[in-house]
Model the fold of this input.
Amino acid sequence: MQTEQQKNLWWQEEIIYQIYPRSFQDSNGDGVGDLRGIIQRLDYLQELGIKAIWISPIFESPMADFGYDISNYTGIHPLFGTMEDFDELLAEVHKRGMKLLLDLVPNHTSDQHPWFLESRSSRNNPKRDWYIWKDPKPDGSEPNNWLSMFGGTGWEWDEKTQQFYYHGFLKEQPDLNWRNPEVQEAMMNVMRFWLDKGIDGFRIDVIFHMIKDDQFRNNPQNPDYQPHMNKYDQLLPIYSTDQPEVHDIVAMMRQVADDYQERVLIGEIYLPLHKLVTYYGVNQSGVHLPFNFQLLVSPWDSQQIAIVIDQYEGSLPADGWPNWVLSNHDQSRISSRVGKAQARIAAMLLLTLRGTPTIYYGDEIGMRDVPIPAEEVQDPQGLNMPDLNLTRDPARTPMQWDDSTNAGFSPAKPWLRLPPDFKRINVKSQLQNPFSILNLYKRLIKLRQQELALKAGNYTPIFSDKQIISYTRAAAGTSFLIVLNLSHRPAYFKPQHFTFSGVVEIATYPELENLPVKDYINLGGDEGVIIRIDN
Ligand code: NOJ
Done:
């Protein structure tokens, strides 16, 4: 068993930390985070136990979608620094034994990318077919009913060349035509550029959007649509996303990554489980980790979470490595979704489930979504659908480092405001408080790193009810029992068919720690424990 387990690769055993670069640390006093700022904070991450960092886009971009609209895939945006700064960051990351992942955005470019400028210049430009151009219907309307994720139609009329182009996101983000081999080759070269530099992998943006139905059929209505939802959800995007041919493209990307040593590809995919797992590919020809957003999208209810975990475990292909995510830059933060007390339970869950965990910057100090007044909203998703409260800004606010000006993030006015409570809720104050969520994260990470059972051991569900979920993790003769109370009321764990004895190793409320337990444990509301089972 031990030898089997030792074959695990770094991306299976280590923890990934997502940095939203605009908001992590500003080093040059312009109110926006940058690469040198990240370098300044690497020691913090190392101390926390982080081994891999994924940085959201840092490339040249008009910033219509804050970097997810790229105008040069191999250039660094001056806001974030220079290529020399990047090289230094990569060297500093590697010096600490850590890994660096970048964001690859292959589905679309900026409308200012030279490829698109050429493509739109005339119908017979050699790059015309690099994007998705279509004639209007005879009545002059859009070629089909596809919608943009950011509101309105997905088609933009081009006056000069008298055709529509398709954009699944902003009109400033035209979708590339991935059926064109030249596009494929160009993007594989982008990957090689960064892999040659020595980065350790990519998180790949909306990988499931890359190929569209070749007949451009209308998407059907979504019978479950509710008016409070994103307008994009009015239709089921069955013809504009997740087409069978996408797997050939993913396999192509995997082959590029496999030409290098131990690089990882992580796919951003919002799909039901049975579709999500197809992105592992046949015989490991897909991405190494299709991001598993089940904990992001499921209601925080013990029975539902227990089902989600078991369904996910049961859906994985035999050679598919699991992974878990609690928050990211597109969704509400975990502390805001489940509350402060349950955020500690969520941390224990994330760091004891089987599979690679991804931590979103600031979650480790329990940062909450920050209310952003309407006149300060920056996110196009929020600006385009102002009545729906869809802005992603609240989960993208500056990291709260200390109680000094602007939380130590920047001497200048930050690009997004800080919450009024940053003087209390920040890294510095939490480091001094042994009971802080930051210290809970640190201890959970440390235990996970020390224990093969938690890093890579078997997962066995034990019992769940309307308050509790519980499971064991075991490897090489060591077992842990994890019992989590997802409710605010006391809960009594006494499973009928499972006996155990052991000692509480870590508890969300540390008073329970070192308590010997046998066959049952009583938990207060919001209490969770990791019990080391006696041999
Ligand atoms: C997914 C990214 O995570 C999101 O931030 C972005 O707006 C869209 N893709 C478009 O690139």
